[in-house]
């Protein structure tokens, strides 16, 4: 047995099961994409705090593993765009990453913001749900491992009713569902863009027992949403940032509106 399989078995023992899809919503969840990333540097505690203060129902955030196996909150595979560091996240240890400035690129007032740990976000998110997306690569199994780390953290923290594991790697989420069936999974539609028949959209979710499927808002239509709902699958639209985008997705009766600007989401749904 590999250490990864041991981790999966350990996580599964913490999990129960749910029979009803609690993610189907009459009013869509308002989901802060990388925190309130319109007003603060994405993936920082400042962005997460602003999302909570502005009234988000949930925070979407991305998880990478450092060289020494610590889960940190970064979107990109590299450090260059959103921190003062350079190179791959996976090539740096947590001590190195914790010293980086993750705020100055966005604005001088955020100088000194650090890259949070997954543990930091979990500590902060009392009373708000999390959509935690696994990052890495599929080919080397990194994304599968990160997905399990996320699922294990959700179960260990007693957050099964509020949090979701997400990924573009459907096989990774299938492993999560197999080993920890009570942790909800929210795959991103594949391919991300381009035509996909409603029945194919449903099939992608059903293939891994997903309660939710995430779809780029421009690829959503009434038939796709209706097909998912008929199959008991919730639909989240992303990234809806402009009032017209938010309004269109809401008219389609999606179950989640994910965007960079929490204030705009709240105002549109008031």
Describe the fold and architecture:
By secondary structure, the chain is of the alpha/beta class. It has one domain: TIM Barrel, CATH 3.20.20. 35% of the residues lie in helices and 16% in strands. It contains ten helices and nine strands. The chain has helices at residues 3-13, 45-54, 94-98, 118-124, 142-156, 170-179, 198-207, 222-230, 243-251, 262-269, and strands at residues 29-33, 58-65, 71-73, 129-134, 164-167, 184-187, 212-216, 234-238, 256-259. Strands 1, 2, 3, 4, 5, 6, 7, 8 and 9 form a nine-stranded mixed sheet that branches. Strand 2 and strand 3 form a beta hairpin. Helix 1 (3-13) runs parallel beside helix 5 and helix 9 (243-251) crosses helix 10. The longest helix has 15 residues, at 142-156. It starts with a helix and ends with a helix. Residues 1-18 have low confidence and may be disordered.
């Amino acid at each position: 047995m590999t250490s990864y399989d041991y981790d999966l078995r350990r996580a599964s023992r913490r999990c129960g099961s749910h029979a009803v899809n609690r993610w189907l919503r009459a009013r869509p969840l308002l989901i802060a994409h990388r925190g309130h990333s319109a007003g603060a540097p994405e993936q920082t505690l400042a962005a997460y705090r602003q999302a909570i203060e502005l009234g988000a129902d949930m925070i979407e955030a991305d998880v990478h593993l450092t060289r020494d196996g610590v889960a940190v909150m970064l979107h990109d595979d590299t450090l260059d765009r959103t921190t003062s560091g350079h190179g791959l996240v996976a090539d740096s240890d947590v001590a190195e990453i914790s010293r980086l400035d993750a705020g100055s690129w966005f604005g001088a007032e955020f100088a000194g913001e650090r890259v949070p740990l997954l543990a930091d976000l979990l500590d902060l998110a009392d009373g708000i749900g999390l959509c935690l997306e696994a990052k890495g690569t599929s080919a080397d199994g990194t994304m599968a491992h990160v997905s399990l780390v996320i699922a294990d953290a959700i179960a260990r923290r007693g957050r099964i009713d509020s949090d979701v594991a997400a990924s573009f790697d459907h096989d990774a989420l299938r492993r999560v569902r197999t080993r920890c069936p009570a942790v909800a999974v929210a795959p991103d539609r594949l391919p991300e863009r381009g035509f996909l028949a409603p029945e194919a959209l449903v099939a992608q979710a059903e293939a891994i027992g997903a309660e939710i499927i995430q779809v780029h808002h421009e690829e959503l239509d009434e038939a796709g949403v209706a097909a998912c709902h008929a199959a008991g699958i919730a639909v989240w639209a992303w990234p809806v940032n402009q009032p017209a985008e938010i309004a269109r997705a809401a008219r389609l009766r999606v179950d989640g509106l994910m965007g960079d600007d929490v204030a705009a989401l709240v105002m549109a749904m008031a």
